[in-house]
Inverse folding.
């Protein structure tokens, strides 16, 4: 494990996970968290449900949660696309591990090294039906299930958070369920996928900005305070979300840098500042696809 990974685990996850682990250790804590058969009410899901419950409990952490969901949705779509190109379809496993440890930790410590190792099998061509499956999995298997708990309340809210932990299975099924379509090959299919994700995530980002302005939430000052001044018990979840987003954008910034140098990283940061991290990452992935397509055409010529 890298020093950065150890720091994220120790300084970001530990302040929240240890108290929640103690609460979920006994049957009383499990029963007070959500309704489910005994074989599902395990301690890991209990901790995750309590994390999600706190993440949606106040405006700043709710906004961070929505931002993290949009960024993670784009990240998992990229993992699926690159998995199709390298015969390494691990996106459902990455979602499962991301739910437990945080996507910002799993992406640099697990996915990126595996992608680098298997990139020697890289092929730029992906079937259009596979891209349709990835798009469906990203929207129906990741984005919508993650947004659903935000509009529910009380017990249904907690139960939805519990069910969410098992959605990686649905994502994997959707990703591979459209081979029967036999769609004609489109060279721009992956680019259209990223453009669509950029549009959805931009809409989500500006909805959050408009809501915060309408409600008069001083989110900028609160985010700076939480990020720079460590964790109090009430800010532990927001602190984790901030650094999870930073780690995720940083990981894919490095991934983009490998192909596009610093110009791609600067574009990623600029897009993220204007359109939000989820849309920024999708736009940068689209730019990368455009560059790869140009390189392929030059090789043919």
């Amino acid at each position: 494990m890298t020093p950065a990974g150890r720091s994220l685990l120790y300084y970001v996850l530990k302040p929240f996970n240890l108290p929640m682990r103690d609460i979920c250790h006994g049957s009383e804590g499990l029963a007070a968290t959500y309704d489910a058969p005994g074989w599902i009410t395990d301690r890991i899901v209990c901790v995750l449900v309590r994390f999600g419950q706190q993440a949606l409990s106040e405006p700043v952490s709710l906004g961070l949660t929505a931002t993290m969901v949009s960024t993670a949705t784009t990240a998992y779509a990229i993992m699926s696309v690159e998995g199709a190109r390298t015969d390494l379809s691990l996106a459902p496993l990455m979602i499962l591990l991301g739910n437990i440890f945080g996507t910002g930790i799993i992406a640099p410590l697990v996915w990126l090294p595996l992608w680098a190792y298997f990139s020697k099998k890289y092929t730029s061509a992906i079937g259009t039906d596979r891209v349709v499956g990835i798009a469906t999995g990203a929207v129906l298997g990741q984005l919508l299930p993650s947004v659903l708990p935000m509009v529910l309340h009380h017990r249904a809210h907690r139960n939805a958070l519990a069910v969410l932990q098992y959605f990686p299975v649905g994502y994997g099924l959707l990703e591979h369920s459209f081979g029967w379509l036999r769609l004609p090959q489109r060279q721009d299919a992956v680019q259209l996928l990223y453009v669509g994700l950029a549009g959805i995530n931009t809409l989500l980002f500006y909805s959050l900005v408009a809501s915060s302005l309408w409600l008069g939430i001083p989110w900028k000052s609160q985010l700076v305070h939480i990020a720079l001044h460590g964790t109090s018990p009430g800010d532990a979840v927001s602190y984790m979300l901030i650094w999870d987003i930073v780690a995720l954008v940083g990981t894919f910034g490095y991934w983009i840098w490998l192909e596009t140098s610093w110009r791609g990283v600067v574009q990623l940061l600029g897009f993220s500042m204007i359109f939000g991290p989820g849309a920024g990452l999708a736009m940068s992935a689209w730019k990368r696809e455009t560059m790869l397509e140009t390189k392929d055409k030059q090789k043919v010529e």
Remarks:
- Residues 236-275 form the longest helix (40 residues).
- Residues 1-6, 27-41 have pLDDT under 50 and may be disordered.
- Residues 188 and 288 are 12 Å apart (CA to CA).
